[in-house]
């Protein structure tokens, strides 16, 4: 069963209870921040702060608007971090759809940071390993909901089976449309194959207003690194082997007597 | 709250004004969101600042701090002129029909009877018939009936006048009025949620009176999803109110005054007489409540012969006032010897911090029982810890006050009941033992009491009886179990020794004892009702009668008899908290005699009128709420420029009670709380300190542009009392207002910092004035004048 988290931003009051729950459950050290000019706890996610409410204030529709929304790992179906990671077993897609970082295996190369279209993973300067929300894999593994969900006072957060949550999210966005918010919709970006963190947005055509990328894609370098480049690499590898084979079949084994140049012996085709 | 948190989800419209529940009551706010999501309720947020509550509201209207009565007066005017009020409800359940004495009126800012700086209230009284009952005109047509007087009084509060005073536009006001008054329909309910944004004004009680008037006109009192609902700011502040203060004994019994020298005189002065023939007048039972309270205080020593020990209760001099402002003023004048401060941090939370610090330095001794070293316990170190911020403070060696800081257990280390905003008494158990030398409050109090009693026993002294006769029969006298105290508070039948089932069993002959009549029923022979956690909901209205215990009598919605008409027919069949089944009222505990026929008595049984008061003759500054400017205001009162502020405003005249004018201090300041912190406590904890580490000053964008300020720029905010510094938070959420034709800017000041704790910052009460509401003595923390300068 694929699980997911649904964030109904229309019910979020920016109380930050989820931030505290996340810090407490994950035994994070607390740090005092410097003033950043907003209500945000810190400007962005940190290696020891995995769940951040972003506050975005603006003028729109002739009035003031103050959008609050929770930001954390999106647990993508097609995860950029996983695509980028060079170490087997450092980033593990669990059978329930969550993307888990296994820190014993992490080498701190930071490729996953480049690979994430949501700019989520953070490198710790002390442990030299990369951290992010695990969707509380240690809680979900024993049938508990993630800490943030457990603490949310307005039921803005829901945890459950992904398919069911997609249905709930779509129903809620229909409800909002009926209430006059024509632009309401579900944020479940297809550029990363959909996410296991879903949002209901009042202004779905402008996710940037909530601090969410409009059309997230795995960066081309990562796609290249693990996509065409990998394919190309394989092609070159197998091409060489096949080439050697056909060379052998067509031309037969090399006759050292015909060629007196020793450097030609280094040709791989001759060794196969 | 007349209703309760869970009931908010029954509302069709939620007016949030003078409160910011999304930030300060986020857990209770879930019921607002439920109303929004499941009932499609509209949320209207009226606030000087665009808050997190405003962010999820359907309509936000900005107003100038301290102009709420103008706004609510405008709503009354709108409802009456647009016929958007529930006429039958007003006729049957309010005093709209009552006739007022000849000569009552209002002109040029004063009600009739104003002379030499005070009111003679003769003309504010009901016109009585020969039997002492108020005369009424059920058709509401008599020119001296409350309805007509109300109509005339609020005829001045037109949308344009409201806009001109409040600083919103007339269109915004009308939009809000249209939304709020949908509740005038019999099948619609609207709730009002308020908190300190209303109580922190020098006309706070009148403001809440105005809200009650709006709710009565809408037919919302007694209705599920209705009511006037105070969101209490501490887990047990409702409980502390219920248990009395300097002017109330437990259960809202009036404190005895020096001129009431016998119990009979006290009862005569404080037991009201019915003002209508059909009024049950439940306070007529005052002798039973008072006698039982005296029996709880003095036990077997309280006898009929000695007036149940009435002599031993301390009396307050006639007309004297011992509210916050007065006792600190007296302390400042050197008239007080000592102060015991439990769970209270006057240096941080009293207005005019320099005066608080100076006042404490005049004491001989100060006892502070707290979880942490607070600013109050450390007041003598203000110079050492924050010299720059408190230059007026004396050096430690110059202060003669002896300070005792007693480590006290925190809430999780004690059992007992919290009384929440919904009036629910919820029993809790201690989670852990107090650490180190920390002790529970009741143990500290018990030790103090027993030591003092021993001194009186040994050495005698003036008037020893109040201490010597006090009943102290707990199993462990030095560590009374709170369950024993709770059983005592509930009350006991002294003949059978059994716990009382409720205040209906109280007697005035000394055969019952009861520590607080409104809590009677909370610990019966069936056990601790406060510890119940049943989740049944027989009415389907979210009243949960088996969850904890709600005062009074486990009633969840006060005045619920008004949810149906005179004949007992519910205004809304789908939403009746109580129903008459031909023999009894079923559903919620009725606010009525349980077996009394619907037409047998009037609906508001706690009032001598038997109906709710639109006109309230017992308030200090007038029977109708009137818009007065705050003590410091940037403009003249648009309604009566010669009477600007509340004529009965309470101020003090020490050398530290300065007031400023708009010439020097052109901006309106508002103090407020943030979600991330709880008062001045959580700056001692890691998590809250991380979530909001820094003090800041909210500055409107337009003013910031004018002054070249951006977010992070260091600014100085000053008032006639002092100044403070901090980084600016420039925001669109503080809109520039247009008031009486000129621009008014408002500055926001979050309260949570101080000079002790994990994070430090200025105490914003350095700026707030010693101006107080004359009815209840609450300081005006909101709507005072400041200047703002860029210094960084």
Task: Note down, in words, how this protein is organized.
The complex is a heterodimer of chains A (about 270) and B (about 800). By secondary structure, chain A is an alpha+beta fold. In chain A, about 30% of the residues lie in helices and about 15% in strands. Chain A has helices at about 15-25, 80-85, 110-115, 135-140, 145-150, 160-180, 220-225, 230-250, 270, and strands at about 5-10, 50-60, 65-70, 90-95, 100, 120-125, 130, 155-160, 185, 195-200. In chain A, helix 7 packs parallel to helix 8. Chain A is elongated, with a radius of gyration of 25 Å. Mean pLDDT of chain A is about 90; it is low at about 260-270. Chain B is α/β, with parallel strands linked by helices. Chain B has a six-stranded mixed β-sheet with strand order 27-29-28-34-26-32. A five-stranded parallel β-sheet of chain B has the order 3-2-1-8-9, sandwiched between helices. In chain B, strand 13 (about 365-370), helix 17 and strand 14 (about 400-405) form a beta-alpha-beta unit. In chain B, about 55% of the residues are buried. The model of chain B has no long low-confidence stretch (mean pLDDT about 95). Classes of the chains: A alpha+beta (about 270), B alpha/beta (about 800). The interface of A and B includes residues 15, 16, 155 and 156 of A.
Index terms:
heterodimer; A: 272 residues; alpha+beta; 4-stranded mixed sheet; 29% helix; B: 6-stranded mixed sheet; 5-stranded parallel sheet; 22 helices; 34 strands
Give me the secondary-structure topology.
The complex is a heterodimer of chains A (272) and B (792).
Chain A: E1 3-8, H1 17-25, E2 52-60, E3 63-71, H2 80-84, E4 91-93, E5 99-101, H3 111-115, E6 122-123, E7 130-131, H4 137-140, H5 147-151, E8 157-161, H6 162-178, E9 185-187, E10 197-201, H7 220-226, H8 228-251, H9 268-271
Helix pairs in contact in A: 7-8
Chain B: E1 13-17, H1 21-24, H2 30-38, E2 42-47, H3 52-55, E3 59-62, H4 68-81, H5 87-93, E4 106-107, E5 110-111, E6 114-115, E7 118-119, H6 146-153, H7 159-166, H8 170-180, E8 190-194, H9 196-199, H10 204-217, E9 228-230, H11 237-242, E10 248-249, E11 253-254, H12 263-270, H13 286-298, H14 324-332, E12 338-342, H15 346-349, H16 353-360, E13 365-370, H17 382-386, E14 402-407, E15 416-419, E16 424-428, H18 441-459, H19 465-468, H20 482-490, E17 492-493, E18 498-499, E19 512-513, E20 523-524, E21 527-528, E22 549-550, E23 578-580, E24 585-587, E25 650-651, E26 667-672, H21 686-691, E27 697-700, H22 701-707, E28 714-718, E29 723-731, E30 737-739, E31 742-744, E32 746-750, E33 771-772, E34 782-790
Parallel strand pairs in B: 1-2, 1-8, 2-3, 8-9, 12-13, 13-14, 26-32, 27-29
Antiparallel strand pairs in B: 4-5, 6-7, 10-11, 15-16, 16-22, 17-18, 17-19, 20-21, 23-24, 25-33, 26-34, 28-29, 28-34, 30-31
Helix pairs in contact in B: 4-7, 4-10, 7-8, 14-16
């Amino acid at each position: 069963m694929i699980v997911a988290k649904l964030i109904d931003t229309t019910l979020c009051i920016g109380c930050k209870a989820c931030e505290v729950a996340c810090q407490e459950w994950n035994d994070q050290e607390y740090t005092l921040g410097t003033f950043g000019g907003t209500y945000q706890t810190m400007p962005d996610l940190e290696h020891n702060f995995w769940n951040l409410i972003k506050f975005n204030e603006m003028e729109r529709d002739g009035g003031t608007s103050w959008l609050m929304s929770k930001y954390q790992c999106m647990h993508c179906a097609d995860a950029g971090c996983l695509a980028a990671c060079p170490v087997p077993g450092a980033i593990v897609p669990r059978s329930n759809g969550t993307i888990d970082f296994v820190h014993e295996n992490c080498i701190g190369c930071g490729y996953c940071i480049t690979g994430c279209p949501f700019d989520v993973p953070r490198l710790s300067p002390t442990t030299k390993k990369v951290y992010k929300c695990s969707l509380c894999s240690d809680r979900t593994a024993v049938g508990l909901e993630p800490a943030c969900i457990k603490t949310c006072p307005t039921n803005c957060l829901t945890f459950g089976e992904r398919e069911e949550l997609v249905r709930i999210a779509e129903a809620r966005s229909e409800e909002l449309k009926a209430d006059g918010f024509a632009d309401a919709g579900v944020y479940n970006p297809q550029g990363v194959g959909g996410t296991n963190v879903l949002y209901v947005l009042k202004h779905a055509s402008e996710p940037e207003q909530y601090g969410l990328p409009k059309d997230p894609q795995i960066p081309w370098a990562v796609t290249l690194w693990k996509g065409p480049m990998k394919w190309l690499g394989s092609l070159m590898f197998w091409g060489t082997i096949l080439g050697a084979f056909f060379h052998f079949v067509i031309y037969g084994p090399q006759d050292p007597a015909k060629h007196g140049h020793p450097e030609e012996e280094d040709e791989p085709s001759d060794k196969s | 709250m007349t209703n309760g948190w869970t009931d908010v989800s029954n509302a069709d419209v939620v007016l949030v004004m003078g409160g910011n529940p999304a930030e300060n009551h986020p857990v209770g706010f879930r019921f607002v969101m439920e109303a929004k999501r499941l009932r499609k309720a509209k949320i209207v947020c009226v606030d000087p600042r665009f808050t997190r509550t405003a962010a999820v509201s359907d309509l936000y209207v900005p107003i100038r701090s301290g102009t709420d009565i103008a706004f609510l007066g405008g709503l009354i005017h709108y409802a009456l002129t647009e016929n958007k009020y529930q006429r039958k409800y007003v006729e049957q359940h309010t005093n709209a029909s009552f006739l007022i004495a000849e000569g009552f009126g209002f002109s040029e800012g004063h009600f009739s009877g104003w002379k030499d700086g005070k009111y003679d209230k003769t003309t504010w009284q009901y016109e009585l018939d020969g039997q002492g009952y108020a005369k009424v005109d059920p058709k509401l047509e008599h020119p001296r009936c409350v309805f007509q007087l109300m109509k005339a009084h609020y005829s001045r509060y037109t949308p344009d006048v409201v806009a001109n005073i409040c600083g919103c536009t007339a269109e915004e006001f009308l939009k809000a009025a249209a939304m709020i008054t949908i509740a005038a329909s019999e099948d619609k309910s609207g709730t009002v949620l308020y908190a300190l944004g209303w109580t922190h004004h020098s006309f706070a009680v009148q403001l809440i009176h105005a809200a009650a008037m709006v709710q009565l006109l809408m037919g919302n009192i007694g209705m599920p999803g209705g009511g006037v609902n105070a969101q209490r700011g501490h887990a047990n502040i409702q409980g502390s109110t219920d248990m009395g203060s300097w002017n109330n004994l437990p259960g809202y019994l009036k404190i005895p005054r020096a001129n009431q020298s016998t119990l009979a005189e006290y009862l005569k002065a404080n037991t009201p007489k019915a003002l209508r023939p059909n009024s049950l007048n439940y306070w007529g039972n005052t002798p039973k409540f008072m006698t039982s309270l005296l029996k709880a205080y003095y036990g077997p020593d309280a006898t009929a012969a000695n007036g149940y020990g009435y002599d031993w209760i301390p009396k307050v001099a006639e007309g004297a006032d011992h509210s916050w402002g007065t006792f600190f003023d007296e302390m400042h004048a050197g008239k007080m010897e000592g102060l015991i401060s439990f769970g209270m941090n006057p240096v941080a939370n009293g207005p005019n911090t320099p005066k608080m610090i100076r006042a404490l330095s005049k004491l001989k001794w100060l006892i502070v029982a707290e979880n942490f070293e607070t600013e109050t316990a450390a007041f003598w170190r203000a110079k050492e810890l924050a010299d720059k911020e408190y230059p007026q403070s004396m050096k430690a060696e110059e202060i003669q006050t002896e300070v005792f800081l007693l480590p006290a257990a925190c809430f999780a280390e004690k059992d007992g009941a919290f009384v929440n905003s919904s009036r629910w008494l919820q029993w809790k158990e201690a989670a852990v033992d107090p650490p180190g030398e920390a002790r529970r409050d009741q143990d500290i109090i018990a030790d103090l009491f027993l030591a003092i009693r021993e001194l009186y026993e040994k050495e005698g002294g003036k008037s020893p009886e109040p201490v010597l006769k006090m009943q102290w029969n707990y199993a462990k006298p030095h560590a009374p179990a709170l369950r024993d105290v709770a059983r005592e508070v509930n009350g006991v039948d002294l003949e059978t020794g059994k716990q009382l089932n409720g205040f209906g069993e109280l007697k005035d002959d000394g055969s019952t004892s009861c520590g607080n009549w409104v809590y009677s029923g909370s610990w019966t022979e069936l056990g601790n009702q406060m510890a119940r956690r049943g989740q049944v909901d027989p009415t389907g209205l979210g009243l949960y009668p088996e969850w904890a215990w709600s005062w009074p009598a486990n009633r969840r919605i006060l005045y619920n008899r008004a949810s149906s008409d005179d004949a007992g027919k519910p205004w809304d069949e789908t939403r009746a908290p109580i129903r008459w089944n031909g023999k009894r009222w079923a559903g919620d505990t009725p606010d009525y005699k349980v077996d009394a026929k619907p037409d047998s008595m009037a609906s508001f049984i706690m009032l001598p009128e038997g109906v709710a008061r639109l006109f309230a003759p017992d308030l200090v500054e007038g029977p109708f709420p009137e818009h007065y400017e705050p003590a410091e205001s940037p403009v003249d009162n648009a309604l009566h420029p010669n009477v600007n502020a509340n004529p009965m405003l309470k101020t003090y005249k020490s050398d530290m009670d300065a007031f400023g004018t708009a010439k020097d201090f052109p901006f309106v300041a508002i103090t407020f709380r943030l979600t991330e912190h709880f008062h001045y406590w959580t700056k001692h904890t890691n998590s809250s300190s991380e979530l909001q580490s820094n003090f800041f000053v909210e500055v409107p964008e337009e003013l910031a542009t004018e002054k070249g300020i951006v977010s992070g720029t260091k600014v100085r905010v000053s008032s006639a009392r002092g100044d403070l510094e901090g980084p600016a938070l420039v925001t669109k959420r503080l809109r520039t207002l247009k008031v009486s034709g000129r621009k008014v800017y408002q500055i926001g000041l979050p309260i949570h910092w101080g000079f002790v704790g994990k994070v430090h910052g200025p105490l914003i009460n350095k700026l707030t004035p010693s101006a107080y509401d004359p009815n209840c003595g609450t300081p005006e923390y909101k709507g005072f004048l400041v200047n703002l300068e860029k210094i960084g």
